[in-house]
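Project channel, design review

CF: Before we commit to the Wenjunlia tyrosinilytica constructs, I'd like one complete example in the thread so the newer folks can see what an input/output pair looks like. Taking Alkaline shock response membrane anchor protein AmaP.
RD: sounds good, go ahead.
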Amino acid sequence: MREHTRTNRVLLALLGLVLLGGGLLVLAGGADIYRRWNLTPPAGWPLTTPQDVLIPRADQTRWLDQGWWWPTVIAALILIMLLALWWLLSQARRRRPRKLVVKDTPREAVAVNDHGLRDALTTDLDMLPGVRRAKARFCGPAHRPQARIGLTLDSGSTPGRVLEDVSATVERARRSARWDELPTHVRLGVAPHGPHRVE
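CF: and here is what came back for Alkaline shock response membrane anchor protein AmaP:
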């Protein structure tokens, strides 16, 4: 999972929990659940009966005669809008292929599209015995990349043997790019198989 995807999920989960909790509290007050079920509302919570409002009229007009009130409100709304717009644009932006630096080339260092290296490594991993499906990608800085590999193994394969083959495949990729090292993270999974019939 890419880092920004994980961050998005955490932020959306937190926002969803806040909205869900607030919505349930508003619903409890509007439906008079606290009185019907003899529940104690949260301390300081304004909505405890159907007649209550979220912001009392006195609080609504408290700061209107202050000179700093409207500039502060407008600045806060603009900031929220800019943050939301930045987040939206960051999601819509397509991920462009990165360039990975290949060392010890006849001339200066050559930058190679990481999609090409990723596809080559994935193809090599797909051909390993015991591997049903492979997916590889590169992350980290261009001059010191890291490999992240996800493997789905056949149900009868031996993980130890597969990892040895993966290590040899990654080593070939490292030597072909002339990198000093290629740290690799491997995630293993087993393909589901149907139930065996016993006679």
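RD: helpful, thanks. The chain is about 45% helix and 15% strand.
CF: The mean pLDDT is 81.
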